[in-house]
Amino acid sequence: MVNQFAFPKKNTGLQALFGGTFDPIHYGHLRPVQALAKQVGLQKVLLLPNHVPPHRPQPEASPSQRLEMVKLAIQGNPLFTIDTRELEKNSPSYTIETLTELRQEKGSTQPLAFIIGQDSLLSINTWHGWDKILDNCHLLVCSRPGYATQFTDPKMQAWLSQHKTAQPEKLRSTPHGYIFLGDTPLINISATEIRQKLIAGDSCRDLIPEAVLQYIHQQGLYQR
């Protein structure tokens, strides 16, 4: 499968990646990222569905079903595009490997960012090759309800303080190396909770784009 949705080749301003299993994709994914895009002046967000996530249980929907749900969720929204490279792997998808690939493709001067939640930031030192991430991109962090805003480990807090910026222009003018803590909507919902609601027959119309919800019902997903 060709990554026909990947970034344009030329430098077109700050661009970001947002990875996830998207099982299913929902407003808790989309709305904070859209708010973050306005805050920092993102030109494009590349959605990166995982195939075999190394830190999470395996998805219930198939790779092709999850890709279709992502397509339906972003149709008509020019901010978002899709890259399928991780879906095409049969091995675990490590963030640092994908970021290194994209940095090589985009060259050394393209401003590039990776979007994560506050929960992921606080555990980032458990990721494979985490200490090389800022060599390839900036980190843009979405708020998450119920999570601390600082590390308990003094060394990790010092790392955060060293790289943190509140100035979006730094993200746009340099290719990598900064951490930006976004002021994004606190949407207290997870894909796990949504799957449980769907199994129970509860309405999820306020949580999932309508086209995605229709596809879920058509495919008979998340039923017991």
Verbal overview:
- By secondary structure, this protein is of the alpha/beta class.
- The protein has eight helices and six strands.
- The protein has helices at 27-40, 63-74, 95-106, 118-122, 154-163, 168-173, 191-200, 210-219; strands spanning 15-20, 44-49, 80-82, 112-117, 138-142, 179-181.
- It has a six-stranded parallel β-sheet with strand order 3-2-1-4-5-6, sandwiched between helices.
- Strand 1, helix 1 (27-40) and strand 2 form a beta-alpha-beta unit.
- Helix 2 packs antiparallel against helix 8.
- The model is unreliable at 1-9 (pLDDT under 50).
Gist?
This protein is of the alpha/beta class and 224 residues long. It contains eight helices and six strands; from the N terminus they run βαβαβαβαβααβαα.
Q: Based on CA inertia axes, which overall geometry fits?
A: globular
Rounded radius of gyration (Å)? 17 Å
- Which blocks of ≥5 consecutive residues have pLDDT under 50? 1-9
Order of helices and strands: EHEHEHEHEHHEHH
Number of strands: 6
Tally the helices.
8
Look at the helices and sheets and give the structural class: alpha/beta
Average pLDDT, all residues = 91
- Cross-sheet strand order for the largest sheet: 3-2-1-4-5-6
Intertermini distance:
32 Å
Indicate the percent of residues in helices: 25-40%
Approximately how much beta-strand content do the residues carry? 5-15%
Biggest sheet statistics: 6 strands, parallel
How are the SSEs placed, and which strands pair?
Elements: E1 15-20, H1 27-40, E2 44-49, H2 63-74, E3 80-82, H3 95-106, E4 112-117, H4 118-122, E5 138-142, H5 154-163, H6 168-173, E6 179-181, H7 191-200, H8 210-219
Parallel strand pairs: 1-2, 1-4, 2-3, 4-5, 5-6
Helix pairs in contact: 2-8
